[in-house]
Amino acid sequence: MNVETMQTDRRRQHLIFIGLFLLLQVIFIWRSIYGFNTADEMYFIGCSERIFRGEKILIDEWNPTQQLCSFLLHPIYSLIRTVMGSTEGIVMASRFVYLVYSGVLTLFFYLRFQRRGYASFGPTFLFAIFAPFSICAMSYNSIEFGILPVLLAVLSADMEHSVPEYILCGILMAVIVLANPFAVLMYAGYGLICLIATVRGRRRGTKPEGVLQFRNFLWMTLGAGIILLLFLAFIFQRGTLSEMLANVPHIVGDSEHQEGYLYKTGRYFHLCFKNYKWMFVGLLFVYGATLFDKKRYSHSPVYMILAAVCVVPYLIYYGFVFEHITVNYQMLPLAFWCLEAYFVTEHKEKRLFYGWYLPAMLFTMIVQYATNTGIVTLSVAYGMCSCVGLIFAADWMKEERQRWQCARRADSGGKAGLCRAAKRRRVASLCIAGVLLIQFAGTFWLRMTYDWGDERGWLLDTRMERGPLKGVYTTRGTAEWYANVLDELDMLKLTADDELMVVGVAPWIYLYSDAGCGNYSTWQVHEGSIQLHDYYELHPDKFPDVVYMAHWAEEFMACDLSHLFTDRGYTIVYRGTGTVLMSPERAAAFMAE
């Protein structure tokens, strides 16, 4: 193939990519108007809104999950919020920010793999069509599962990096740590590897490659330190060290995430095996047979078919059948099918395996330490392995094609040999095409139809016309409930002088109301929580004068936590879609109106 032909093919590849990319963006823009996630997405935006209103990271907000990366999102959110002038339609604006973020990363991954030809479409478009939890919002999930692959893509590249590039890598690592503080373990492990490689190289009189030099790790640390300094400057601009020291123990003592690390390590393997039992049983036999087979490369189509038999039922089940928060589960099986492709490829892509696939797999354990949602989040993390694993599958397919071409040129074995070679190629092509078709179809189907916390897409037929969810479609019943709650909040005439506590998982209420958040988080109130007592002891100014019970009114009033208010003379002044509890002074003013 001459240079002109190669350039023509490359231009054709770029044009096809651009066409598919733009088509997907149009589809995703249309898709973004559907789905009312009453919990997680609203909580993510609610954290940014609290900071925009002047509240303090690590002081006023006690939920540990989103607040650190809200520092990263603050400039973007502040710009959008200032331009909009209110939170009217803020959810749609947030979703568009996510689409831009996802689109930029998609373009980056294509540029990273473009020289591999059409094989670059696999990891690029798998990343593009998958949204963690099907929530199109900037959160710790979208940041860590988006930025970590970018960092690994840079460090695994077969090239020497400049000092500014290593500093940029350190900045990316700091961003990941803000999204998931446990990622500092991964960073420390990487530093230890660099130190060992450097010391070993000096003893042997050799120099390790750039990404394994401890000097470059220190440049990365400088980049991470820049983010740390900005973060500390932002915190202490609003609060004091004594305030932070008083509040941080309560933040790290969050009751939702208190489980021992030994327990979480064991639970990691238990959850993976429990949800993919027969897949792992089958794959263990396939992996074992592969590694002990001295002719594994000749027998590779057989092994890939056997691995596909283990994986495909789970791709179908979690992609099209399973109905319980199914959107993440189908990202894990592909990672282990691609691992088999790596085993049966003679000329392996070791840099991608050791520099991307393996660190991403180790990161799934770090995710387990940080989360309380188990396999739901672990399977998202395995998506980072699945994306790069598609390169392993493409390399295997490339070798099979080369074997076919060699057989044709040599005419080895006569017609019988050519038939066997042709059969191998067809089997390899069908195996790749079958697995990828099911994977991409299932992922795209879920992206189009599944809404975390809402009904399936075809049931979302009613548009919400005001408030933070203006322009979003949901079910008729949910839209009516939403409108009724907004009417009741309007009736309360809450102002910035009020402090509001919401009972139930309804963070979007804080987005609509002008009142301050009279709670340690916009997330939810646990009826058995002791954190609320501790929070008001440290933040007496945040004690609410209005409690709006969006859910669980009877349960809340019957639990011990309600005495925190009733012992102070708080009374119920309204029962409707929600139930309203007010302080004596606020109740008197409300009744007078």
How would you sum up this structure, described in words?
This is Glycosyltransferase RgtA/B/C/D-like domain-containing protein. Keywords: Membrane, Transmembrane, Transmembrane helix. It comes from Laedolimicola intestinihominis. The chain crosses the membrane at residues 15-34, 96-113, 125-143, 163-196, 217-236, 302-321, 352-369, 375-394, 427-446. It is a single chain. The protein has a five-stranded mixed sheet with strand order 4-3-5-7-6. With 593 residues, the chain is mainly alpha-helical. Helix 12 (277-292) packs parallel to helix 14 (333-343) and helix 13 packs antiparallel against helix 14. The radius of gyration is 27 Å and the shape is globular. It has helices at 3-31, 40-52, 67-84, 90-113, 121-129, 140-155, 163-179, 183-204, 214-238, 241-252, 261-275, 277-292, 300-321, 333-343, 350-370, 375-381, 383-410, 414-449, 476-492, 508-512, 531-538, 553-558, 563-566, 584-592, and strands at residues 462-463, 473-474, 499-503, 516-517, 546-549, 571-575, 579-582. The longest helix has 36 residues, at 414-449. The protein contains 24 helices and seven strands. Helix content is 66%, strand content 4%.
User: How many strand elements?
Assistant: 7
Number of helices: 24
Which ranges are low-confidence, i.e. pLDDT below 50, for 5 or more consecutive residues? Answer: none
Strand pairing plus helix content: what structural class?
A: mainly alpha
Protein name: Glycosyltransferase RgtA/B/C/D-like domain-containing protein
Keywords: Membrane, Transmembrane, Transmembrane helix
Transmembrane segments: 15-34, 96-113, 125-143, 163-196, 217-236, 302-321, 352-369, 375-394, 427-446
